[in-house]
Structures are given as structure tokens and as C-alpha cells.
Amino acid sequence: MAGEPDRDRDPGPGPSVLFLHPDLGVGGAERLVLDAALALRARGCDVQIWTAHYDPGHCFSESRELPVHCAGDWLPRSLGWGGRGAALCAYVRMVYLALYVLLCSGVEFDVVVCDQVSACIPVLRLARRRKKILFYCHFPDLLLTKRDSFLKRLYRAPIDWVEEYTTGMADCIVVNSQFTANVFKNTFKTLSHIDPDVLYPSLNVTSFDSAVPEKLDDLVPKEKKFLFLSINRYERKKNLKLALEALVELRGRLTSQDWDRVHLIMAGGYDVRVLENVEHYQELKNMVRQSDLGQHVTFLRSFSDKQKISLLHSCTCVLYTPSNEHFGLVPLEAMYMQCPVIAVNSGGPLESILHSVTGFLCEPDPVHFSEAMEKFIHKPSLKATMGLAGRARVKEKFSFEAFAERLYQYVTRLP
């Protein structure tokens, strides 16, 4: 347990809201959960976060401003080498967490907001006093894994059924983008009668506005003028190799003088408990060595919020490489910091980035990415022009105030 449950806190004028989340780390889902909790607290709600794993040293700093409680971390995250059975273990951990909250914590609450894993919803229905349940669907989990063998299909069949059935048990379902809303409708056939609302993630810009950017002398050689930045977890589905392949392609497009001033920082969430993080990080380092990019690439693992803001403040452009990303907070963070974004032309970035205005939307191949990168080198003023347009777009379409108000309306008007 991380701290004692807040049984004696004076409730605010709003409902008491409990967030259930599988693993409070440093991903986009965790950023959204924290921002949602902060938003509801600002509206007078009594808020707590319960999770199966929480490490304050490997989480966003705002988590320390909220009551965060942990239960069930002793349960396994996988069934053996290679992370096998991770989905089943995540379901078990969340069911245990929900049971613990109901039977052992002594905490009273009116509304539950859960995300990622819906298997805990039937457990919450067992409460003596009915809880209202809002499920935030980032993306159907059944689409996040391959079924390349009969055993894998056999293993996933009941898990996929449970996900679809239990998702439909929520009182309200919201999704993070129109892209995800369409995928939801096409994936969960038995839930075709449900039209999930789109609640775009936003930025809590307080930390961005208050931070004083630091110098990057320890990360980037002084002679580098064109600094490209990739921010994403060290996972293969994030297609981080595309950034390195684009850098190789860019080398062939530039004069040696311009090439000498180019640098790429590969910043990413990294967890030693996750085998894929460890393996993929090494794969990327091997790729840098084989491509002779050692003098042009810096790896940064599990960076701090201040480092991220300093990087966004100083870099020429952000490279956002995943395809069919559900939404993606990194483009919003970059645009708010007046940093253009080059992203794949699919998924959430189609809704956040304006092509040729706040950045470039490209086919997911190194040629198109390198062509977009080259534009910032031959026309440096493009960064300032697109940067201003990006900040204006975030303020207009993805403001924290609008997000907070819509979320509060959902929570207070649940049937």
C-alpha cells in the first residue's frame, strides 16, 4: 500500500471519484489519468487513484500531488519469459485491485473511472451501494496483439470476449479520438448500439508554463544546430526505427557541413521490468552502430519532466513515428512548446496536427520523413512559423479547461 486510504477527508461539493488504473507509469494513458484526476479535483471532487503498481520515481511528478494507493503488485505481470500471458495477468491484477478496494480499503466513493482494462467492471457492480462507472477506452486491447498461432488464438478468445462484454457494462464510455471511436464501433460488434463520446486528452499546461528550460550541453554537442527529437516508449509498435532510418536517408540529402550540425535525441519511457523495453533499446543502439550514426544520436531513457520541457524548447522538430496511434499526447506537448511535429499520416495525429501548418503528416517511410526534416534545415524560419500555429491550435482545440469541464459533466450526469 502506498499510504493510507483517505477515509477521513472532507468531501468537496462534487462527487467522490475513484480512478482504477493498471500501472501508473510514464505513458500517455497515465498522463491522461493524472490530468483527469487533477481536473476533477479542481472542480471540487474528492479524488483518489488506485493502481496495481506505483513507483513515485518512475511516474509523472503530478502523481505526488494526489492520493495514490497501490494493491496487488505482488501478483505476477506475466507468466514467464518473454512477457507471455501479460493480458491475463493484467486482468487478474485489476480484478484483485477492484476486490481489494471494495472489501478491504474501507473507502467510500460515488463514481469509478477506469481505463485500459474493463475486466474489473463486473466486480465493481458487486458493491452494496451501486457505483457509477465511466470507462475511458484508449483503444481495444484485442487489437494490440498478434494471433500468429493456434495456441495464441485459443488463449486470446476468452480474453477478447471478456473485454467486449465487460466494456459494455460501463454506464458511460468515452474514447480519446474519432479514430478510436470508429475502431470501437468496427471491433465490438455486440456493442454496435453504443456511440462512445470523444473526449480528447488535453494538456495541463501549468508545468510547461512554470518550468525554466535547462541547457542541453550534457546531451547535445555544442556545434549541433538542427536538433530532432523522438519521444516514445521503447516498444517496437512505436516504430522508433523509422526515426533512425529517416536520419540515414537525411544524411544522403545534405552537404557534409549541414549534416555535421544535425543531431537526433531518442528519448523514451524505459522500465527494466519490461523485457521489450530492454530488448528494443539494445536493438536501436545496435542499429545506430551499424549505420555509423554514433556522433549524431543520443539515447535518453526515462527522462524527467524538466528534461522533456527543455528538449521541446530547444529542438527543431519532433519526430512522431507510430502508425495508427490512438491519439498521442506528444504532438500536443510539442505544439504547445511551439515545436513542429513530423508524424505518420494515420490515427490520432490526423486530428491533432494540421498538415503544412503545425507540422507535416507523412507516409511511414524514411524517404518521406527525411524530406520533411530537410525542409527545416533549408528553411529554419519554418520552426517559428509552425511553432506559433501549433501553440494556437492546442489552446483552441485541446485546452485543459474544456477537457476538465466536459469530464466533470460526464461524472456528474452519469445515469
SS summary, helix count:
15
What is the H level of CATH, i.e. the homologous superfamily of the largest domain? Glycogen Phosphorylase B
Task: Strand order, main sheet: write it out.
Answer: 3-2-1-4-5-6-7
Q: The biggest beta sheet, please?
A: 7 strands, parallel
What is the tally of beta strands? 13
Q: What oligomeric state best describes the polypeptide chains here?
A: single chain
Q: How does the helix and strand content classify structurally? A: alpha/beta
Quick rundown:
The protein is of the alpha/beta class and 415 residues long.
Describe this structure in words.
- By secondary structure, the chain is an alpha/beta fold.
- It folds into two domains: 203 residues, 3-Layer(aba) Sandwich (Rossmann fold); 192 residues, Glycogen Phosphorylase B (Rossmann fold, 3-Layer(aba) Sandwich).
- Helices cover 40% and strands 15% of the residues.
- The chain contains 15 helices and 13 strands.
- A seven-stranded parallel sheet has the order 3-2-1-4-5-6-7, with helices on both faces. Strands 10-9-8-11-12-13 form a six-stranded parallel sheet, with helices on both faces.
- Helix 1 packs across helix 15, helix 7 packs across helix 13 and helix 11 packs across helix 14.
- The N terminus is likely disordered.
